[in-house]
DNA sequence: ACTATAGCGGAGGGCTGCCTCCGGTACTAG
DNA sequence: CTAGTACCGGAGGCAGCCCTCCGCTATAGT
């Protein structure tokens, strides 16, 4: 799960060579994932090191800045999300877009830090946003050309709408799905 | 603007008697409003005191806990928002609901702290949520009875959807309005 | 087995924020 | 004007976080 060496979105921190070092590296990554999800962007680095059962020095050696750690945790996942866009490509236009967005919300809903950062203008997240656009725009265009999305809607509108929904704190998964569908129905052409 | 003594939502901190003390009290409130909007719930209290040109002791005397300050800043405003629900009551059902929600988004969009807290389960914000429900539900019901809102939508869905949109970070006010309208269109009955 | 070295970890200095406490200030009533 | 007191403000103790530095340890190649 964490040992995937894929060069996510071009921003990378190199994984150490020695086996013990790799174990620590992975433990840090997974501790950070937890902490960021729980406390958002500002999670304590010392706490992350503690969770990982590792000295604070080890954290800093692997990830010199908070941003490095943050990027390592999330960019890979965003990458996967983008990849999911091609997996839905064989569905009908509307269903494909819907499925992808649903997956996006599902993913982001539990990641407080992602939500905080999504609207920020940090370097790495500009990349992430761009990637999301590159992945989603074709789905959107296809649906629009097929006439199942009103012509006055922009993909940017949709993405931001869905980003917002992501942080809305629903009572359960079911409501989340329901509301997303409600909102997406607003995209259909009015008769 | 800040000298309104209305007992907002029942949670209150009493405003001091002496004129100089009242000046400080108001200065704190307005500094806090700024700071909370800017840095969210975790804004530094010492910074707020500084902005208000007041000693930290004065802040703590007036607002013993962060929550007290927070409540004093926001509950009054929420109260106003609820009051706005009756002001739109003479519009047609759909337009009334739309206008009220639009106003809600407009208000909350600039208040980072509100967004953070809206989904929390803090005591005071349960009150606020309840008040919002009491204010908005009638608008919603009326629209639903008038047949301009699909029957499978719940008011809770709508409120959460709109809460979410509130934190979506749009490029400009125009986009915010547009997206909200898009999302709300999803509430209309499908032909 | 042995050694060179990649990697470890936590002590420590600096910083910021929280909150209390109390000597001093300045308003207001008379 | 004066006295009583409501109110001020910041020094100071505590806590948590950031980040660096360096003596020690465990690994990997021979």
Structural key phrases:
mainly alpha, Tetracycline Repressor, domain 2, 191 residues, 9 helices
Quick recap of the structure?
With 191 residues, chain A is mainly α. Chain A has helices spanning 19-39, 45-52, 56-62, 66-87, 93-109, 112-118, 123-145, 155-166, 173-185.
Structure in words:
The structure is a homodimer of 191-residue chains. With 191 residues, the first copy, chain A, is mainly alpha-helical. Chain A has 2 domains: 8-68, Arc Repressor Mutant, subunit A, CATH 1.10.10.60; 73-185, Orthogonal Bundle (Tetracycline Repressor, domain 2). Chain A is 68% helix and 0% strand. The first copy, chain A, contains 9 helices and no strands. The first copy, chain A, has helices at residues 19-39, 45-52, 56-62, 66-87, 93-109, 112-118, 123-145, 155-166, 173-185. In chain A, helix 5 (93-109) packs parallel to helix 8 (155-166) and helix 8 runs antiparallel to helix 9 (173-185). The longest helix of chain A has 23 residues, at 123-145. The first copy, chain A, is elongated, with a radius of gyration of 18 Å. The model of chain A is unreliable at 1-7 (pLDDT under 50). Chains A and B meet through helix 8 and helix 9 of A and helix 8 and helix 9 of B. The first copy, chain A, binds a DNA duplex (30 and 30 nucleotides) through helix 1, helix 2 and helix 3.
């Amino acid at each position: 799960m964490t040992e995937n060496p894929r060069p996510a979105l071009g921003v990378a921190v190199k994984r150490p060579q020695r086996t013990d070092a790799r174990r620590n590296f992975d433990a840090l990554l997974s501790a950070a994932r937890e902490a960021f999800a729980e406390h958002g962007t500002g999670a304590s680095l010392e706490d992350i090191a503690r969770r990982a059962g590792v000295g604070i020095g080890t954290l800093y050696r692997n990830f010199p800045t908070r941003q490095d750690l943050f990027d390592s945790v999330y960019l890979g996942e965003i990458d996967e999300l983008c990849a999911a866009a091609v997996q839905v490509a064989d569905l009908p236009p509307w269903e494909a877009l819907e499925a992808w967005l649903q997956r996006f919300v599902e993913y982001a809903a539990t990641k407080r830090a992602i939500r905080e950062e999504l609207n920020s203008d940090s370097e790495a997240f500009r990349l992430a946003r761009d990637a999301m656009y590159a992945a989603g725009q074709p789905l959107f265009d296809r649906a629009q050309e097929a006439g199942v999305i009103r012509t006055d809607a922009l993909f940017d509108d949709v993405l931001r709408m869905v980003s917002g929904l992501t942080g809305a704190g629903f009572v359960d998964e079911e409501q989340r799905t329901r509301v997303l569908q409600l909102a997406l129905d607003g995209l259909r052409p009015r008769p």
